[in-house]
Amino acid sequence: MSNSKGKIISAAGLCLCVILLWAGAYLVPEPNEAGAATQKEEQERVQAAGSYEDSEKEVIFWYSDADCASFAEACVRDYYDKTGVAVSAVYREPESYLEQIYDVSMEDGDFPDVYLTWNDAEEKAYLYGVSTGEVYPVFFNTLLLAYRTDCFPNAPGSIQEILDFGQSNEVGEGVGNLLEWNVADGFCNYPFVGNSISIQEDGTYTITDGEKYNQKLIFFQQLSESVGLETDTITRASVLENFNQGASLTALLDSDDLDRITAEGYGIAVLPALNEELDMQGCARTGVLLINEFSEQEVKQKARDFAAFVTEQEAMRVSELTPHISVDGTSLKNPWDIVAYEQYTNSRQVPSFVQEEAFWSRFTSDMTGFWNGDALPE
Q1: Could you tell me the pTM of the whole model?
Q2: CB–CB of 63/89 below 8 Å?
Q3: What is the pLDDT of residues 152-166, one digit of tens each?
Q4: What contacts 24+ positions apart, CB below 8 Å, involve 197-200?
Q5: Residue 199 is inside which H or E element, if any?
Q6: Mind listing the pLDDT tens digit for each residue in 32-46?
Q7: 97-100 LR contacts (CB < 8 Å, sep 24+)
Q8: Which of 80, 76, 14, 25 is CA-nearest to residue 49?
Q9: Among 303, 238, 364, which residue's Cα sits nearest to residue 87?
């Protein structure tokens, strides 16, 4: 706030202010009376609608993330309590999720009017004709660095710092690795070279900075000699378990796993650099609500209202009822969630195009090949 300086108000100006204030007192209704009237109307409308269970469902809402069951149920009930409009929450298996939506919509069955998916499905959904193109972001997941505070009182600034620690210190009994991550997953390997490549819509990718790209791949491949990670056996779950048991000093973990950390004495930080010259580029996904183009116009509007309600009013419930973290940074209270949000805002969103699965398949294959000793590109 800036310091206010004294101002001289003319007599005419002062009179004008008094007149406006006097007029406002008569033109603006009493807040208490207006608020009471609005609240009474709201209560009468909701009461007239009856219970949520007995009400006719006016909007169908699909989700395919089993971890979102409690959240979905809470959203539809909170929305009903507020508006009297009943939304049906329906879980569907994640396999061929968009195809299910398309098939049911084409059959004119009980298709969803609004549905929850990841942002990498946006373009495909639009091309399938099951999205209006409107996007309502709800939550995210990204990669973070977890570290043991007995070894690193402060978050390591680089992966090289972690390696140097192992060279200069006794790491303790039972420690198998200085650093772990799911090296078999392209999403987890992406940060090593992410800002040196450009992803194309046909599923290929091109190198945008050849010198940096090669330097990063060399660092990546040499790292395979320092940490014993096997692409054939490692999993996201094993990385988390090893960190919880103290078998690794640091780990790159999915932000969805923050609530599953049981290790004692740990910290969470944004992704470190590789070394003093080479940085990392984070990658992130966003869970979004999409509106189905097949829905009737009146139902679309109700679906939009529900989606806006979820994004604007239910943000604080995301972390309470799911392993995900809300995209509304102002709603976050947990310090690790705040760190994750910082990483999210500085990460690159996973691509959204029809051939994105082809990209991930190729990229994952290339990176695991380099890790296992394939010749680096010239």
Answers
A1: 0.84
A2: yes
A3: 999 999 999 999 999
A4: 199/351, 199/359, 200/359
A5: strand 197-199
A6: 555 555 555 555 555
A7: 97/64, 97/121, 98/124, 98/125, 98/128, 98/130
A8: 80
A9: 303
